[in-house]
């Protein structure tokens, strides 16, 4: 039982919660909450920590059988509050090994009969937006996420919580040169669409049944001009009222689910 917040294991967890550099150096990240922890496999996990109150509230055979597959340590409730990133911790968190993909792996990944459906992010900063894009993306059937190195850390605890487990299943990669990565995607036969206020064509007038990728930019500034020029087509989401644009995660969701709709019904949408 860990009773002190000064314990070196506790300090390590706090460091991993707060610092992207620590997460990169150790190749680990933090997962909180029973739902997401229960999805983990032993080979993914280095350590699980469980609070006293959590153990008292979950005295069942299923949880005991689950924990028996892992290295786990009980901690006092006040210590769990120090370790957790949430205001009201559920009482269970795990140190999880990071996964690393390459762009080549993502481009070779789609199952037979499934066209590429990629999200490409430039300097997206909000952890909640990034996590929501992964979660919605899994629901819409995306095949991967490509990000520049200025995009938020996908292993930030706020991103992890927002994904609701999709981070385990959606492949993603950070690239040092987004322009070169886009050229590689083009060479792989992927049509690039940029969500842009200057788009001349509405998003629902495009054919997304082809292998495609969607470029989305920073929450405040949108895509840089150089990156927007990499797209085959600039598309816009028409707005009613006085709204000029959508939240990045909402805009991504509109595009992803339109792609899913077209592919689901097999409609051959014509460009206008």
Number of H/I helices? 12
* Major sheet details: 7 strands, parallel
Low-confidence stretches: none
Mean pLDDT level: 94
Please provide the count of β strands: 11
Question: What is the CA-CA span between the terminal residues?
Answer: 66 Å
Describe the strand arrangement of the main beta sheet, using strand numbers: 7-6-5-10-8-11-9
Rg, Å, rounded: 21 Å
Strand content: 15-25%
Overall outline: elongated
Which structural category do the helix and sheet elements fall into? Answer: alpha/beta
- The percentage helix is 25-40%
Helix/strand order = HHEHEHHEHEHEHEHEHEEEHEH
Brief characterization of the structure:
With 272 residues, the chain is of the alpha/beta class. The protein has 12 helices and 11 strands. The model has no long low-confidence stretch (mean pLDDT 94).
Please, could you describe this protein's structure?
This protein has 272 residues and is α/β, with parallel strands linked by helices. It has 12 helices and 11 strands. Helix 9 (157-163) links the parallel strand 6 (144-148) and strand 7 (172-175). It has helices at 8-18, 20-26, 34-38, 52-57, 61-67, 77-83, 103-107, 127-140, 157-163, 178-187, 225-228, 248-265; strands at residues 28-32, 45-51, 72-75, 92-97, 117-121, 144-148, 172-175, 191-195, 201-202, 212-216, 233-236. Helix 8 (127-140) packs parallel to helix 9.
